[in-house]
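Working notes for the structural subgroup meeting. M.R. asked for a predicted model of this chain before we commit to crystallization trials. I am recording the input and output together here so anyone reviewing the notebook later can reproduce the run.

Input as submitted:
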Amino acid sequence: MFGYNSIGSSMMNSIGWYSQINNMRLIQALNKNSSRSVGSVSSAGSLRSKLLNSDSADFLKSYQSKMTDMMSKANALRSTNSQNALNNLSVSSSDTSKISVSAKYSLRDQASYQVDVKKLATEQMNFTQGYDGKANDVMSGQLTIATNYRASPITINVDSITGATNEEKLQKIANEVNHYKAGVSAMVIENGGKKLLALYSDETGAENAFNVSGSFAEQTGLNKAEQEAGNAEYTVSKDGSSYGAQRFQSASNTVQIGGYKITATLKDVGKSTVTVGTDPSKTADAVKDMIDSYNSTLKFLDDNSNRGLGVLNQMKRMVRPPISERSMKTLGITANKDGTLSFDKEVFTKAMAKSPSLVNSLVSGPNGLAEGIYSDARSGMNVSSASLTGENLTGSRYSGASYMQNAGYSLMGGTYSRAGTLRLLNLNSVGALMNFFG
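Returned structure, recorded in token form:
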């Protein structure tokens, strides 16, 4: 009778693309099953008893879950998936102290904009002279404020304002101004221990300037603007554009760049680059999720390697790296001695910043990491439940070494290889269990 130990020996001569470490790992899994021999189940009654075995049913459910999760995580990074994480673009600023950015709508095209802020949009500010807040000086005359919000100016008779202290009287004047809601607000502030009445436009921009007049304003200096209302001035140039830098003005420091989808807040004068591209951190997280699922599935197979040859076949597929080790190294991925993969997020994000198109190809391309892992999961989903639990060996012409050396591994009508055509037949949701009880 041909046992698993001799199967492992024949494999060493037939699959030259294994690394020595992965050969050792697979043989160790096989050696755990040396007591079980091929063809140990031979009768229909024995098969039926196994079909009713709850342990086998639970195993198949877990197997289905592992393969489905691995397939889902890999599919999230495949180029054929329109919702590919690498197609999920975001916008960023190279200097958030100069410009902060956000995207209100979904971004579809990668781009880079050089923004040079020449001047920020400002609001107008006027101040009175400083008063001793606790004293009670004489305040008299009129205060007139003209704005674009009102057809006629507002006028306040300061002579009618009473109070026990200067601070109290200044606050009553401020309340009168605010009552009109004329696009100008007033408040009492403190500067150098003195109380001042401050007027300021509610919005930035030259169009929101106001005029202050009247005897009270002239006596206290409130008629002179400490800061003029002005528009923001900035230029924008886009990489690859033949139009050069375009000059813009805005009454607000919140502007649109590259169309209506990118909102930028101008914070300070100076230059910054606004980039629309893949978010390295989110992409790295998606890659990590896929690798975690891959490792979890491989460990699950190893823990259940004492079941059918279908489990060992799936292990054989997965211990082969999905892409070359050189390519994985570029992505910050290394193969461990036990066949699992390790992921360095820092190396990955640096690679994305340096060569985004290369990383995109290695992760999501037709022969990329995600496609390789997806293919492994899809092949695993198409393995018969009998093969997974060992029942496929009953009376099989593919027994012993001849079964392991059979290059096609034809199960359920599918030929299994990384580049081969697989017939899934809508079995993704309940395939393993349906075949098990069929």
